[in-house]
Amino acid sequence: MPGHTPVLLSDVLRTFDLQSDQIVIDATLGGGGHARAMLARIAPAGRLLGLELDPRTLTTTADSLREFGRRVTLVQGSFRQLATLANANGFDQVDAILFDLGVSSMTLDDASRGFSFQANGPLDMRFDPDHQTLTAADLLNDGTLADLTTIIKAYGEEPAAARVAAAIVDRRRRERFADTADLAEVVSSVVRRRGPRHPATKTFQALRMAVNDELNALLDGLNQSLEVLKPGGRLGVITFHSLEDRIVKRFMRDQIKNHGATLIAKVKPPRTEILSNPRSRSALLRILSTSLSTNTKT
After folding, report:
1. Are 102 and 221 found together in one domain?
2. Domain count, the chain
3. Burial classification of residue 196, based on how many CB atoms lie within 10 Å of its CB (0-12 exposed, 13-18 middle, 19 or more buried)
4. Looking at 45-174, which runs of residues are DSSP E strands?
5. Per-residue pLDDT tens digits for 67-103
6. What is the CA 270 to chain-centroid distance, rounded?
7. Containing structural domain, residue 256
């Protein structure tokens, strides 16, 4: 898909070691870059289930994958219901599952979704606006000072969380938050820029994660994956920041220590990939091979 560059693609394909006619799940379909490459590897009869929470992204990606016909099944839904969605679509024993936890470029670059400060838009940040009600604007305008401080500190790891939260509360006394530019301006007034990163980066991340309950969803999805992976199947997770990586690392360590799983790979993008795709700079891929005996949830 033009404009979409899948992160660590060659490493995913190498470490998954996909074979003809295998069955795989892309739990975070996004623009479909990983899915397309995996479908090519498992040809001629291999099947792929793609899950995508964002209905707009799913519609666009479905058109780009139409050439694969019945070999690909696409479902709008969260990976926290991975096992239910997989079983309902005939994917109950799969060879590999991929989670790419980065926000889709299509979603991030759409100003109307409110995920980025790069262009002004409404403070929404819902991955699934058809089924989610809570928006980032709701949190900013109605959250208590204590709640906002906790969210920004816990999900954004922002050292100045208390000052940012106080500035938010002070601003909303005069005018309610509506647009991303409003928030970026307030955060920039209390957080100094250090290096190329925008001062509001961590606060935007925190609100997005809170709106979408991302960390709880991730743990649910990892546990669900064990219900549909074949014994010896491979689980790949690409993380982008320490909070989600901590959950993945803890989950995989438990599977290795207590359930006979094996860590196949831990890979960071090479400098060449970072230069060609700057969004990959913080990516980290972990590949786990589950036990050859019965898979066990954490």
Report:
1. yes
2. 2
3. exposed
4. 47-52, 72-76, 94-100
5. 999 999 999 999 999 999 999 999 999 999 999 999 9
6. 21
7. 9-106+214-290
